[in-house]
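Checklist before submission:
- one chain only
- standard amino acids only
- sequence pasted in full

Submission:
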Amino acid sequence: MSSPNATSVITILAFSLLLQGCFLTSKVTDLAVKTDSTESPIGDPAFSNNPTSLYISGVTYQSLQLTWTAPAKSFDSYKLAYLQSSTAPTDCAIGTTLSLASNLTNYAVMGLLADTTYSFRLCSVKNGTVTTISEGSFVTGKTLIAPPNNPISFSGVASSISQINLTWASGGGTTVDYRISYQTGATAPTTCDAGTMISESLISGTGYSVTGLTANTQYSFRLCAINGNLTPDVSSGVTTTVTTLQTPPPNPSGLTATPNSDTQITLSWTSGGGSTSGFIIAYQAGANNPADCTIGTVIPASSIIGTSHAITGLTASTAYRFRVCAINSSNSVSSGITVAGTTLATPQAPPPNPTGLTSGSVSDSSVNLSWTSGGGTTADYRISYQTGATAPATCAAGTTISESLIAGTTHSVTGLSSNTQYSFRLCAINGNATPDVSSGITYSVTTAYAAPPNVTGLTATPTSDTQINLSWTSGGGSTSGYRIAYVSGVSAPANCATGTQVGEGSITGTSHTISSLTAATQYSFRVCAINANGTPDVSSGMTATATTLQAAPPNPTGLTATPGGIDSEVTLSWISGGGSTVDYRISYQSGGAAPATCAAGTTISESAISGTSHTVTGLTGGTLYSFRVCAINGNAVPYVSTGITVFTVTKKLATALRTIFTSEAPNKSLNYSIISKNVINNQVIIKDTSDVYKILNVVTGVQSTLSLPGISGTILSFVDITDYSYSTNNYRMIAASNGTNGYILSYNIDTDTYTNLLESDSSYGLYFNDIDYAIFDNYFYVMAYDSTSIRSVLYRTNGASGGTNQVLTTAGAINLLESAGSYLYVSHDPNNTDAKELYRISSGATSSLTLVKDICPGNMSCHGLVSHDFIERRSRGVLGTNFYFVGTDGTTTRLYKTDGTSGGTVALTTLTSEMLRSHYVTLGSVLLFDKDGETWKTDGTVGGTTALTTAIPFMQSGFTYSGNYYWVAESAASNFELWKTDGTPGGTALVDTLEGLYTFGDNRIEGLYLSEENPHFPYVILGTDLIYPARKAQGVELYKVSLTGGGAPVLVKDITPGSGDGVVTAIEDQYPANLFKISPTHFLFSGNLNGEAELWISDGTSAGTILLKDINTHVPGSSIPTGYMAGGAGVIFYAISATHGRELWTSDGTAVGTVEVFDSVTTPIDLESFGIVPVYGSSNWTTTTRNYAPFSNNKLMSIYFDPFRGSELFQLDIVNDTFDLFSELVPGYIGTRSSGANQHSFFANTFFFPVSIGHSTYVHSTDGTLAGTVDALGGLNDMFFNIVFPRAQISTSKVIIPPSDVFDANLEFIVFDTTTRTPSNVSSVCGGTCGRMTNGAVVSITPDIVAYADPNGDIWKTDGTAGGTAMLNIDLTDIDLNSGTAFDSSKYLFFAGKAGVGYGLWATNGTQIGTELVLNLNPSYTVGDVGRYAGSKVWNVNNVFYAVALDSGVKSELYTTGGTGATTSLVKTFNATTQSIFYLVGAEQADTAKIFVLTGDYQNGISNDVFFLNPSDGTLTSIASNTTANFMFTLSPIQYDNVILFQLQNDTDGTFESVKNINVTTNAISTVLTTTAPVSRMCNKGGRLYFTHSDATYGTELWYSNGLASGTQIWQDANPGVSSSEFGSPIEINNKCYLWGRTNSTANSKIFILDF
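Returned file contents:
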């Protein structure tokens, strides 16, 4: 019977044993056994006594432990049989057999193989016989796997501060896995189950990275092998100890790569310190850096010493990238830094020596060396030298001259000592980085003697009439002798090689006597030093002059004494006694006895006396003086004659020229103007007052003369055209001319060099008034004109030398327009028939003209294009690839677009003939333009060409921001408004009303000229805010509006509280002010606080808007910053300081950084613009002297330009002789405006004058009191300065202002009541057709009636009322009331009138019937304005009217008239070609009236004759004739006392003739002043005329004349010597004479009074 469940029982037992720890090295699977037993044969139980329950109870890798249960019956022993198989032996005799004692129930079978399956059978034996009926129990088992071997080669490496990488090799055997344990310290865990354990499930292969460790810490590891048993065997293990890395050291810095050769580059760096213990280098060729110090070629730290390393073995001329990393002692490596480096080229061979070293010219301080190159690899040369006969051993010894200073095969060695031997060594060097230097060749030479210094102390002493002794002091130095040259005369020989020469070899001392000279002769000598050179150097020499002695001179004769015109002068005149007389001496004293000799009394030396007359000055008026005049000869110690005597009494004249006012002005004005459009390289081009172009550095203030390549002579014009870039070059394109040729040049901004690109055959060939250019296909195109071939020539250039070529030439005019798409469009008139059409040009070095479309076909004088649009660069547009322009077919003007083809050229809309200039701006997909005063847009289609708004014109000079275009224009209400548009009607809106700030329409706004460079109005954008000045209730202040958020404009800051202007937008047209953005957050502007305009800065907020710097510290005083231009410290601009006047300044936006660039060389400010402009009172034109009427308070008003206030109203007190400010009507620099006498008038005790605010002019009036100083016309203004002032007076309180559309759209008269200070219109005059009147078109007829002429040829009268206003004559086509009209206030007004052909003389007495033709000229003469002089040549001489009639080229006639035709009679007919009448001058002497007629050739200016006209019988008598050709009267005849003075001037060359007089008593003419200089009348006072005159002695000074030659002389030499003073604008009033001027060219302006 089988054993029940034997297998299961054994299996359970095996698990039980396992759990009890019996088989610690076994696996459950290893205990799987198979048991069996064979039952005894039935019927034979004796044979069933086998052991049972056989199982394996213990397993090792070498044995199996068997356990069983003994048989129940007795037996003798056991028999055990086993096989190395999974099948048990079939009986106990098979396989290996063992006999076992019967008392055993277990047995360990030893000597088995590991990991091997064995099968066992156990039988009982009885009586020596093995049981046969049963095969016994059996079991199968397997031995364990053998224990593993320990691993080998166990080591660890720290890879970071927290990781150690462990590696090992397998020990072989039964190892299947590994286990690691570790702990800190030097001792590893005792087993692999101690410390921190890493199980075998985490370990793969023979390496493992332990992480999460602590930096710089020692760790000990144990590594054990395990086998594959269920309960594995663990080897004893092996150990290792490793320390984690320290924290990586800091990176090095300052890495540089220096190529040493073609194979070597040296790296240098600075250690970052810290834990750094060394460095690692990684590098690779190319442009990419190694990613870390393990990439590329790596040089370990062990190979690197210090902080530099030479890397060798590189490839020549190759770029490398290097990385240097720091490493510390724990092998922590930093990220590293990188650098690039390139190896040098392969070194050249050493150069051969040069040859032929020699010297050219040798001076006392230099030697010019020259040599021949030895060729080979020679690239440069090096020189060394030393004194003596031996050259330096090498070119590095002695004094060396490096190769950088040597060019070519010559060099001048300078700084040498004279007369010294020098030896030179010349070496060749090649082009290696460290060049090879040849051994060199040598040369010796001795320098010349130094030039001898000049002698000093040269004297020439005459010792007789034939000898002069010369004596001097040697200058030393290299002097070895002397040479003397001399000539007769005042000028010494130019050098010692001319004239009569003495010496050289014979003169070694320092004195010499020259003999054989001529008596009484002046000689000039030059003494030169010479040295010992073979050809000796001769010094420039020293000169001396001496005259041989003369005999004693005879006395002069004929001595006279004439008192001068002023009380301090007497003029002495005498006749020379001849002989040896060369000079004269004068002595004088008061009283009747002359000094005994010419050495007694007050003496005047010969040096002060010229000729045989002398004016003694400094005398006392009304005093008796006696004079002695002696002759002297020319001896060094002259003989003096005994002399002759005379006495006289001086006159009493004006005593002084007294100053009563001095301007505070810094007497300077800017002496240059900036030509450049902007600053480049801190430089601008300027033109000084001499029209010399210069380069100005705006940082240093240094000037240098502009020199342009290829332009000879003086640069006469310079035009800054535009910026242009080609490839990497940035240019400024320039046009220049020297008057003969025109040039186009490029200025390379990067290299600061000019290149001459193009020369035309004349300065006009480049159209200098408007350089015609375009940029097309990346080239700069410019038009020129070939005057020889009479052809237009088109050039193109890329700005570089050699980059200019001629594109095409053609007959007829060409104007470049614009490029669009593939074409450059031009206007072209091929036949010069005034018929321009649109043509195109294709790109390329050469091209031809292709007609786009004949818009005005078949009309040779019709412009298909509107011609004047071509000059304006704004008058065309580009949208996409299409070109837009204005054209006409001769009837209708249209806006066209074209794609360059005839079919693609279409009209989009019509334009009125009045609006031929449109302004085009591209905004996105539309083009904006002005159509007939409205803002339109087009998308290139007829339907898409529509109005955006009809409320405002469109202006080009605006700006685009965030899809919107902003611009300023004048509305129908005459307000200037700020608008914006996005290109749609809905997006077109008013932003702000600017009101009265801008007053110049679309041509000029507050001094800012519309152009492509300047904005339409001053503005800046800060962030998203637009900031600009505008005039509102607060005056002109800054406002801002958001460009993104919308909303109403807001005031930035009320700088000048109230209605005063806080922002200055312009002062003078040439100095426009603006807002300048100095940084992204701030801008500069001219702010006006308390009347002082200074430099302000703003950030767009009230608190951030502040005064930056008070440049003009004078109180009051304005610097008025203007003309901002980027450059210098940030911006340059003009400003006025109290000391330097207007100069160039720069600012960086800080007060300390705002400084003057330089104080220019200044010129005196012209008196007319920086002085006093007197304002006249009522005037009477019937005399030659203007009368001045002061106010009742004895004050005379004047407009004075104060540099710190501007033009303001001043007053002259004619009683107290003071001049001071009357009223500052406009605080600050901007004051009243003075533009000459026509802009002031004085009527009815009221002074009318202009006040300018910005560019608006207002008429003000004053009665001489502050309370009576008002705006005369109620705020009406004139923007163009043609303001019309009162020109006539009606009654005692009313004045007439001529018709002007400024005041009345109907062009009526204005009557101003000086009592009520109010204006009013005179209605129903001209019916609104009079037209604007000129100032001189209104004159008085009687005290209560005035007449005026209108443009229609009618003459009117008015008494200031509508009823008293009427037309006097309707038959004339033209009337001239403007020039020289004479009248008698109780009788007639004479005027020139034109009826049909020619002019006639008309007169009116204020009635229509009393208005008639007085004198009719030849009515058949139809050419020109015949007889116009009939109106302008009328004189009232002693209440007798004389008129001149001129029939041009035929005759000139003198008439007398009583105001009617019946009372008009001919006096004399003159030949018009020789004797046109210039002046009639009348004078009264006793009771007889005398009239003098001055005539001359009207056509040629010859035969200037003077006639005496006898008023009693009308006869003319010629009293003088001047036949000098081409002389005209220049000094209008001046009559006073008994004389009439006049002067003539040559009308051809401008030269002047002497001043002459007519004695009205004797009718005689004589010369008063012999001169070739002009004279200018100042004052007629006390019977004397005071005038300015210039001569060689005094310059221009004040003179006087009593009408006689003897009484005409200088009165005061205000600027002593030949220097001149300046005087002008005389005022004679209250028996006083006032002048304004200055006593020298740099003094401030003054007002003087002549004291008597």
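Reviewer check: The CA atoms of residues 1309 and 1322 lie 5 Å apart.
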